Amino acid sequence: MSLSEEKKILLSQLVDGELSVNQANQVLADVLDELTHVLGNTEATAQLGAMLELREALDPWRRQELPKTVVALPSVHPNGKTSHFRWHVVSLASAALLGGILVAGGFVLGGRFGTERAALPTARQPVVIVTPEQRREIARAFALHESVAGPLSWYAADEANIRVAPAGKEESLRQPIAVVLRLTRDLSDASHDVGPETYVIVCRNNDAATIELPQSAVAKSVHLRLLPTTANGEVSLQYAISTDGSGRGPDEAALAGRRRVALSQTSLGQLAVHNGLLNVDASAWVVKN
Amino acid sequence: MMETLAAEIAGHASRMYRVALRIVGSMDAAQDVAQDACVKALRGAEKFDGRAALATWLHRITVNCAHDHLRKSRQMERGRADWDHDTMGMLAMLEAGPAKRAEQNETYRVALTLIAKLPDDCRSAFMLTQLDGYTYDEAAAIENLSRGTVASRVYRARQILMEQMNHHRAGEVP
To answer: Based on the domain organization, do B3 and B70 belong to the same domain?
Structure first.
């Protein structure tokens, strides 16, 4: 029986130590099978066979990979603004970065944001409620970033970017408030089948945060000014939001107002962008340690 | 500097996770432990003594984080008296229910159970190299032993396991 070219190449790599342990062991097991067939079971073949078998038996344990974790580290943004960090996200398990997963600083929130939906007869879209687990994840993400970078004035994350701003001593004592902001193309605008953009923001009670959100498929750039205040656990959000639209003309739209915002999505209004409408919704709550 | 270190830590993350898993015995908890260990490593980067191998340093941080986790969750006190802390999670996972995953075949389950009963010295070397995925050199640095001693202990553990698995197949209680 002649040896296939493929097997010969594997043997060649084996003697050079160029195969992974599992590949090498598979080649050895194949050779061992042939030897045993011809020579019978010798002490050496029995030992090697048992060792290979034990090694293979433990392979499932060695295959266990960190399921879904990222860690972020800061560096100064290329634009040189010292008050504005750009965070690089280093994947510790690339398989975890599945579509639709929201990176929230050290933690990846599973899948679609919000799983509890309450139907409204005339709603443009289902109402999304932030789950307790998501609130915990966001609190942990914020704490994680503060543990690495020091007190933060605000923290903003989307699927691919995390931005933070350092807090002064006085700011750092103020209660953190989480805001989940969703920008959605209006459904009546059927020409644009673009999913919602979700941003997780943590800012401070009674401290205005000015944030430039990264460019997305929904809007070219969005500028936010949020001033959350809390009383008796309720959050009131004062906001000014503008977008540059396509940049092809006087497209910049803006909306401003003040709303009481809770865990279920509250509409902050609509922005007119160059070829449609953008719904802006928010949920907010006080972050508890 | 930080980016380089983070990238290097990222390369060790799955091994850190496996170490945590065999100690804490839950995938979620092991993930938290690995995450905490990564953050502690990044925060303590200035404490990293370059003379120690990165693997050794990260392993120590991971084991400490895992033990902290067990202490906080009081599992150490609840753990079975005949279970060592370093294999408590592994055995707990095996006992958690009938083969939760397809790959948890009989050989796998028997092998893990027998590993927990190995003599301390050779068990540690065997787990580091065969379960966690450290090289002999890394295991030697972690255990503060020579490479030859690690090789010898892994060999001894393997011999014991093979013999006991034969007993098991023959229907004898090892």
So the answer is: yes
- Is B104 an interface residue toward A (CB < 8 Å)? yes
B41 and chain A: CB distance < 8 Å anywhere? Answer: no
Indicate yes or no: CB of A65 within 8 angstroms of CB of B14: yes
Please list every residue in chain B whose beta carbon sits closer than 8 Å to the beta carbon of residue A86: none
Measured over the CA atoms of residue B96, residue B98, residue B102 and residue B106, the dihedral's sign is positive
Residue B91 lies in a domain: no
Same domain for B53 and B118, yes or no, is no
Q: Is the CB of residue A220 less than 8 Å away from at least one CB of chain B? A: no
- List b or e across B127-148, with b for residues whose CB sees 16 or more CB atoms inside 10 angstroms: bbbbbbbbebebbbbbbebeee
B72 and B101 within one domain: no
Q: Is residue B82 part of a domain?
A: no
Indicate if B52 and B8 belong to the same structural domain: yes
| Number of domains observed in the structure of chain B | 2
Residue B83 in domain: no
Residue A264: both structure tokens together: 């279920």
User: What angle (nearest 5°) sits at the alpha carbon of residue A256, between those of residues A248 and A103?
Assistant: 75
Antiparallel, parallel or unpaired: β A85-91 and A70-76: antiparallel
Encode chain A (289 residues) as per-residue pLDDT tens digits.
577 888 888 888 888 888 888 889 999 999 998 888 888 888 888 899 999 999 998 988 888 877 644 444 433 333 433 333 333 333 333 222 222 223 333 333 333 333 333 222 233 344 566 778 788 888 887 887 777 677 888 988 877 677 778 888 888 889 999 999 988 877 555 555 567 788 889 999 999 998 888 777 666 778 889 999 998 888 999 998 887 654 444 555 678 888 899 888 888 988 877 667 788 899 999 998 6
Domain that holds residue B151: 97-169
Tell me, yes or no, whether B72 and B101 share the same domain. Answer: no
In a domain? residue B86 = no
Nearest C-alpha of chain A: how many angstroms from B141? 20
ipTM score over 0.90, yes or no = no
Asked whether A197 and A158 are in contact (CB, 8 A), the reply is: yes
Q: What is the pTM of this model?
A: 0.55
